[in-house]
Design goal:
Strand order of the largest sheet: 1-2-3-4-6-9
Number of strands: 9
Helix content: 40-55%
Number of domains: 1
Oligomer: single chain
Largest sheet: 6 strands, mixed
Order of helices and strands: EEHHEHHEEHEEHHHEHEHHHH
CATH class: Alpha Beta
CATH superfamily: 2-enoyl-CoA Hydratase, Chain A, domain 1
CATH architecture: Alpha-Beta Complex
Radius of gyration: 17 Å
CATH topology: 2-enoyl-CoA Hydratase, Chain A, domain 1
Length: 253
């Protein structure tokens, strides 16, 4: 298995677990995304009763700003974005259309496009230190990862737009109130496995299929494609370049 992504059986072989273990808090770099897309394909072929998606101390920090800035300064940021954003969008669609329920077990940071790996889950259990923040308005990027394509389906269009416009941070309690998490637990992975012992995965799969019918899935797919095009437009602008420089300078990098 990839050193960036681990795939293993769980719950006595009834389920499968993907553990993200890439550098920089599971930053969404091309190698990590390619490995993640590959293992999701393996999950689809194996057809488990459920999929558990988890990470380490941080679930995912989203796109690596340093890598985007490096590519921008080499005149290759459009090419680099093409290796990141379309792959992330395909992963979100893959999770959304898996026939089995997807349960996220998340700790720490869930930021930028990485939040799509939470939004695309059918249920989520988060640690007390978990938080989600978009960062797009601050960075000058256009949203990706389903912030405008999928999140409005989860919490409503007004709430999603307001969150993006304010660029605020939602902690574990906020995620629970928004319905983006169903439980806060010190050990999210153990709590997720306990939940899958309590509930019938087949019933959860039926619920998923009824909610994510073809019209709803197709609408999300079209919006993800629109996100990708908007990201490509914004990432090459001088304003975004300057904001990336400022962000990394403020971060001491």
């Amino acid at each position: 298995m990839s050193e960036l992504i681990d795939l293993q059986d769980c719950a006595g072989g009834r389920g499968m677990m993907i553990r993200m273990q890439a550098p920089r808090a599971n930053a969404l770099e091309p190698g990590m995304l390619s490995a993640l897309e590959g293992v999701i394909g393996q999950v689809r072929a194996r057809a488990p009763e459920f999929l558990l998606l988890t990470g380490g101390r941080n679930y995912t920090s989203g796109g690596d700003v340093a890598r985007f800035l490096e590519a921008a300064e080499q005149g290759a940021v459009a090419d680099y974005a093409g290796k990141v954003v379309p792959v992330l969008q395909r992963i979100i669609m893959s999770l959304l259309t898996l026939p089995c329920p997807v349960i996220a077990a998340a700790r720490g940071a869930i930021t930028g496009g990485g939040a799509g790996l939470l939004f695309a889950a059918d249920a989520a259990i988060v640690a007390p230190d978990a938080f989600v923040q978009p960062y797009y308005a601050r960075m000058g990027f256009a949203p990706d990862g389903g912030w405008t394509a999928l999140l409005p389906e989860r919490i409503g269009a007004g709430a999603a737009q307001g969150w993006l416009m304010a660029d605020t941070r939602e902690d574990a309690g906020g995620l629970l109130r928004l319905g983006l998490a169903q439980e806060i637990a010190d050990d999210p992975q153990a709590a997720a496995l306990a939940r899958m012992e309590e509930f019938d995965p087949g019933a959860l799969a039926e619920i998923k299929a009824l909610v994510w019918d073809a019209p709803r899935v197709n609408a999300v797919k079209a919006r993800l494609e629109a996100e990708t095009e908007a990201f490509r437009r914004r990432i090459v602008t001088p304003q975004t370049h300057a904001r990336m420089q400022r962000f990394l300078s403020d971060a001491g990098r």
